[in-house]
């Protein structure tokens, strides 16, 4: 009935409640690699990822459902993974006031006596009181400032960068600080409700540079990245998968108010850069045209299958 106002491809789908200004946002997330590496942390992380995705479209997270997919529970290791993942989900959902209202469990997922990695899946829903305040991830206007909200420590273990480029598959997933998740999430939601930010995307798999790429492709606009202060390893900064982070676009007229709110709630932020041109630029290291990036994003699967 024409009520879908944000289609799949963003952080969450959004559907208007017909005949009202309200809208419902929904997102589905899973992370088998984090859960396999450390089930307790992985369970927390999936709930937090769902929480961030809803906040990134301007929705207040309300509740979650789950689909818990595991191997043979008669095997001690598999049962241990299940118990710890559930403990992580429970701890995060309680702290974030993001309750589990339904779900199911699927055991005995095996082939030739080899079980799948622990794969709990979380579906989250949230409410936008006025759909006109909905956020999207696409960059909007040249000259607007771009912040990373939340602290970047550069955690590369279990990241896409480490696994795919360094072929390093050992190590723990990034830690989950539930206080930071809630405090930073509520702060970003406050910025959204006060119309101080015009685009938002959470930082998750692939790190900052991957999140930026999505925002640039969606908005068909580039970014000039600032020199990074106090940085010793650019790879850790750009590809680390630290949790509790968002990238936001801020009009210059809103900058002082945004800084005041971030300071008030003791939220760390980095001034990442400025929306500018048609490329992702960083010093002499990166000059990636958005058109080239968009083509790679759009056609890679076809090229991969053709080979």
Strand-helix topology:
Elements lengths: L3 E3 L6 E4 L6 E8 L1 H6 L1 H17 L4 E10 L6 H20 L4 E7 L3 E2 L2 E2 L3 E10 L16 E5 L10 H6 L12 H16 L5 E4 L4 H13 L3 E3 L8 H6 L6 E5 L4 H10 L4 E7 L3 E4 L3 E4 H17 L1
Parallel strand pairs: 4-5, 11-14
Antiparallel strand pairs: 1-2, 2-3, 3-8, 4-8, 6-7, 9-12, 9-13, 10-12, 11-13, 14-15
Helix pairs in contact: 2-3, 2-5
Descriptive account of the structure:
The chain is an alpha+beta fold. It has two domains: 4-133, PurM-like, N-terminal domain (60s Ribosomal Protein L30, Chain: A), CATH 3.30.1330.10; 145-306, Phosphoribosyl-aminoimidazole Synthetase, Chain A, domain 2 (Alpha-Beta Complex), CATH 3.90.650.10. It has helices at 32-37, 39-55, 76-95, 160-165, 178-193, 207-219, 234-239, 255-264, 290-306, and strands at residues 4-6, 13-16, 23-30, 60-69, 100-106, 110-111, 114-115, 119-128, 145-149, 199-202, 223-225, 246-250, 269-275, 279-282, 286-289. It is globular, with a radius of gyration of 20 Å.
